[in-house]
Design a protein that fits this description.
Layout lengths: L11 H12 L23 H10 L11
């Protein structure tokens, strides 16, 4: 059974993430504090295609209006 401290077993990826957090690299990211789009809704297998269509529709094209 391992007897060392948890830092002895820190992976290289965990170390890079920890160092980035300590240096503030994750501070002030776009969308910080906002909900992730689509969370809190009913599970829907077609969510990805509706999301893609919405992101790629031409705002000038009135025929693409989903309503």
């Amino acid at each position: 059974m391992p007897t060392g401290s948890p830092s002895e077993f820190e992976s290289s990826i965990d170390r890079v993430i920890r160092e980035a957090m300590e240096s503030g690299d994750f501070d002030d990211l776009p969308g910080a504090g906002q909900r992730i789009p689509g969370t809190g809704t009913v599970d829907d297998e077609g969510w990805w295609i509706r999301s893609w269509v919405e992101r790629n529709r031409d705002p000038q094209d009135e025929s693409s209006d989903p309503d």
